């Protein structure tokens, strides 16, 4: 029997579903009889509970389950016969009128849109590149040294300098009143390494043990503490301890402590360069991929299913709530998170997903087995035991699905770059790494 599909607007459709009342009643009765074999009730042995008691206790829930099952099957069959790609979950409501002996329902839903891909040769993409030079290697070696540095107390007549570790007591006031988080004793931080606001850091430099200083500090308007953001505070700081840092020399023992058996400076620099090149490759790819996706969306035309945007918004809200839990926020499940703040991001993700999906389908850009294997092996090279990492990925479907998604995005990126108007730009190493 042909399915009558009514178009309501753009992507919204409606079809009518009918179910035989006798079929529903028969299925409910069969499930209640099956339930009666195991149900327990006071005053009756298992399996001997009268059907009237079983029906009274479980009839409504069983009726609900049967209706859901039958409607789900009827909708799936109708959508399949009409060759509809349903987006989201249908809204099903019972109709007041129906043929005798039947129950009628309206199923309202959205379908996936037609995605019109424009001319990719008109898309403009900025493709970045970056190299690992000697300065980048030097900087990374210095970071490795800092990770293993030690500290020794400075003489009492020497003030704090950049790189020193200081221990201070401080108290801040706004309009003469203390504020939450504005006081601490025995507080440690490293001078000149961005751990404190620049004004605070600058005020502490040069201070000697036992000295106190009062200075004004203007909190940035976008400061994470909303109670003090944009306000000016007066801080009283007392220096308790000043410790100078000592960086280890790049000796054979130092190099070997990093797991490089050769123990030479050359071997260290070669290992650092190899790791940096791998990191640069992934960052460049991520940057170019983002540029391609932005360009791809601009040359595509499509309507967006509201159901998909709603589902994606809910997923983002759930992720934000989970992030709060990971940060130790109490009552994260009850913390108000306005869904509307995620709506633009959800809309962008849905749009991009539909466009990419169409491009992949139309141009056979699916991930090939050899691509998946190569990608996993490349990622595994940054770990101590690559073979174990490869096995870890291959043993889990969810992890493999994530790898497949990345490889497909890489295929899309390569495909678009081969056709678009590409402008190449060489990025300094530091700019790429701090972006």
Automatic annotation (TrEMBL):
Keywords: Cell cycle, Cell division, Chaperone, Cytoplasm, Isomerase, Rotamase
Principal subcellular localisation of the protein: cytoplasm
Molecular functions (GO terms): peptidyl-prolyl cis-trans isomerase activity
Task of the protein: Involved in protein export. Acts as a chaperone by maintaining the newly synthesized protein in an open conformation. Functions as a peptidyl-prolyl cis-trans isomerase.
Domains as described in the record: Consists of 3 domains; the N-terminus binds the ribosome, the middle domain has PPIase activity, while the C-terminus has intrinsic chaperone activity on its own.
Protein name, entry field: Trigger factor
Gene3D superfamilies associated with the record: 3.10.50.40, Trigger factor ribosome-binding domain, Trigger factor, C-terminal domain
């Amino acid at each position: 029997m042909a399915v009558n599909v009514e178009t309501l607007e753009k992507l919204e459709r409606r079809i009518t579903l009918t179910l035989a009342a006798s079929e529903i009643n028969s299925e409910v009765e069969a499930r209640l009889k099956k339930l009666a074999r195991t149900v327990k009730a006071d005053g009756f042995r298992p399996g001997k509970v009268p059907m009237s008691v079983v029906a009274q206790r479980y009839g409504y829930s069983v009726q609900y389950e049967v209706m859901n099952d039958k409607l789900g099957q009827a909708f799936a069959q109708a959508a399949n016969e009409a060759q509809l790609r349903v987006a989201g979950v249908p809204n099903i409501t019972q109709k007041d009128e129906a043929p005798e002996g039947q129950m009628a329902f309206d199923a309202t839903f959205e379908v996936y849109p037609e995605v019109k891909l424009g001319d990719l040769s008109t898309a403009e993409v900025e493709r970045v590149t970056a190299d690992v030079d000697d300065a980048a290697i030097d900087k990374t070696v210095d970071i490795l040294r800092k990770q293993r540095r030690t500290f020794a107390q400075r003489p009492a007549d020497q003030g704090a300098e950049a790189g020193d570790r200081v221990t201070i007591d401080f108290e801040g006031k706004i309009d003469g009143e203390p504020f939450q988080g504005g006081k601490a004793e025995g507080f440690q931080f490293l001078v000149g390494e961005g751990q404190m606001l620049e004004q605070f850091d600058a005020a502490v430099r040069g201070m000697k043990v036992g000295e106190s200083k009062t200075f004004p500090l203007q909190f940035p308007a976008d400061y994470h503490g909303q109670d003090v953001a944009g306000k000016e505070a007066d801080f009283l700081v007392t220096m308790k301890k000043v410790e100078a840092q000592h960086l280890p020399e790049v000796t054979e023992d130092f190099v070997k402590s990093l797991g490089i058996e050769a123990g030479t400076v050359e071997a260290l620099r070669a290992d650092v360069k190899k790791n940096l090149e791998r990191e640069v490759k992934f960052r460049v790819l991520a940057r170019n991929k983002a540029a391609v996706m932005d360009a791809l969306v601009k040359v595509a035309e499509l309507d967006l299913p509201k159901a998909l945007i709603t589902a994606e918004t809910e997923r983002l809200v759930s992720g934000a709530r989970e992030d709060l839990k990971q940060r130790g926020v109490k009552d994260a499940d009850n913390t108000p998170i306005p869904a509307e703040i995620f709506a633009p991001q959800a809309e962008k993700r849905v749009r991009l997903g539909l466009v990419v999906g169409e491009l992949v389908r139309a141009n056979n850009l699916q991930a090939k087995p050899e691509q998946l294997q190569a990608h996993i092996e490349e990622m595994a090279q940054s770990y101590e035991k690559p073979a174990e990492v490869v096995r870890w990925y291959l043993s889990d479907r969810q992890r493999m699905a994530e790898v497949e998604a990345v490889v497909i995005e890489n295929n899309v990126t390569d495909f678009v770059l081969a056709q678009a108007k590409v402008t190449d730009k060489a990025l300094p190493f530091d700019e790429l790494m701090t972006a």
